[in-house]
Amino acid sequence: MIMKPRTEPLELKAKKLLNVRMNAIHNEWNVANIQKGYEGEKQFDALFENSPDHWLILNDLLLDNNNSKFQIDTLVIATNNIYLFDVKNFKGDFCIEGDKWKSTYGKEITNPVFQLQRCESSFRQLLQNNRIGSEFSVAAYLVFVNPEFTLYNALRDLPIVLPTQINRFLEKLRKYSPNQPLSSSQMMLAKQLVAMNIDQSPYARLPQYDFENLIKGIICEHCQVFMINSMKRSQLICPKCGKSEAVESCVLRSAEEFKLLFPEKKITTNNIYEWCKIITCKKRINRI
User: Which spans in the chain are helix H?
Assistant: First the structure.
């Protein structure tokens, strides 16, 4: 049972919008890396679609322990165990040399096992400090979901699950998880963790921007390019993918994008009229 579903990160949504509405030459962030991570997490989520009914699944938790924040990609509360999963969508060949992780090109990356261990330690302390979940044992795993990922020199005792091992690994967890009805302690812990979740603002990691300097128009939600008028007055069409969308739907979606990028501004007819640009009749926007 999913207690906290995964949604597209607001930071990713905002950056994709800015990627289109700002001159690409001046972009100072990498949307692709965030998108790739999110897609990997969604890929891992799909493996839990047929999970046991007595498993409670919480996605994208951001928690705080003694003023130190830590993130959990996927958390599963089983009958007697809590499983923490750090999901990686790495692609290519990597090797381990002592405590160092390197690509085959020699580029060193932050050791993800150390990151996992810090997350597990912070979570254990969080449970202890709040006197919750004492009846559950905790285990944490680093899961690589990309089939084009290869890791060399990995010791067998590392908490790593490689792409070719994922299905067998999850089947093993199901096998050793007693098939018992969902307990009140499971549900209580899940609700407590959801209540502790921190809604992180995406704006701290965005570049500076303002309304006047952004390109105006309505963006295709599939291709991330600006839509144009179609033969039908009631629809707009994407010049890239050819998909059409009702004007009313386009305006409402654009208003939500405006609200995301400018939470301090009021949604007025004038603002949305200028934001959409392609809608020539202001009264039409007012009716929507």
Answer: 10-21, 31-46, 112-129, 166-175, 184-196, 247-261, 269-276, 282-287
Side chain identity, residue 241? C
Phi first, then psi: what are they for 214, rounded to 5°? -90, 145
How do strand 108-109 and strand 228-229 relate by DSSP bridges? unpaired
Tens of pLDDT, residues 77-123: 999 999 999 999 999 999 999 999 999 888 999 999 999 999 999 99
Any domain includes 162: yes
> pTM of the predicted model, to two decimals?
0.87
The parent domain of residue 74 ranges over 2-196
Cross-sheet strand order for the sheet of 2-4: 2-4, 56-65, 68-77, 81-88, 137-144, 160-161
3-state secondary structure at position 78: coil
- Quote the CA–CA distance of 40 and 58 in Å, as a whole number: 16
